Amino acid sequence: MTVVLFIIPVLAMVGALVLYRHNGKRELLSFDVVQFFYAFIISPLLFVWAKSFLFFLLTSELRLPLSTRQLFLIDSLFSVGFLYIFAFAVIHSLTKSFNLKKSRDPLIDLFEHSEYLHLWLSHLVIYIGGMVVITFLALTNIFFPIDVPVAKPVFYGINLAGVLAGAGAYAGVMLSDPEQDHFMLIMKTVAGLLSTVFIAVYFVLRPSFSAEYGLFWFSMMTFLTGSVLALFTERSGRTQSLLDKFKHRRWEFKLTTLLE
């Protein structure tokens, strides 16, 4: 274990040096491919390594009498600090990619290039990533029920909140549609697939309609509401027209604000 912990950062540094020779030669998801590896492969690898190394030091080497809560607090503080560093590492990788692209083509429109990342890619990753995390937590609730006494009216309110959350989330996705590369089709497909997962889990495992599985039911209501609204707005020309008008007015308001 000790040998592995020391080998990983050495291999990461060697890999970074080897990759650097290919700087500016290729692109991946509008990032320079080397900068992409730095930001999204090497940095997360070092994050996991650093957390493992910290845990190894605290539990095996220093042998401090730390409780589980104290270990969690130390790990959380360390993780937050590392995430700040990671955020700036991603900013550097992105701006370095812009710099390399500008050096190859001085007339390139960097704003148009950045809009691909700002509108299409980042929105997909954030929305789909959020849906996957929520689904994972909800399915975990199936195997680990929440042992918290909740009155029936409160539990029904939680499910109603799930319906409202689904409607709000779908409205948010609709209003942030960049209208690029089948964005809404991808979002609706993922939401539909995850809704199908919830329905299948219900019929297979049969969780009771109770507060013990509150997170599962809240998430299921959220996804089902979003999926139903997606079908409804897709088939309803009037609703689609109203949404389009609202989006256009929102963009006009933004443009007017910028001009002022």
Describe the structure.
It is a single chain. The protein is an all-alpha fold. It folds into two domains: 2-107, no CATH class; 115-259, no CATH class. It has eight helices and two strands; from the N terminus they run αββααααααα. It has helices at 2-20, 33-61, 68-104, 110-143, 152-175, 183-205, 214-235, 237-259; strands at 27-28, 31-32. The protein is flat and about 60 Å long. The model has no long low-confidence stretch (mean pLDDT 84).
What is the gist of this entry?
The protein is 81% helix and 2% strand.
Structural class: mainly alpha
Side-by-side strand order of the widest sheet: 1-2
SSE run: HEEHHHHHHH
Largest sheet: 2 strands, antiparallel
Short key terms for the protein model shown above:
single chain; 260 residues; mainly alpha; 2 domains; two-stranded antiparallel ribbon
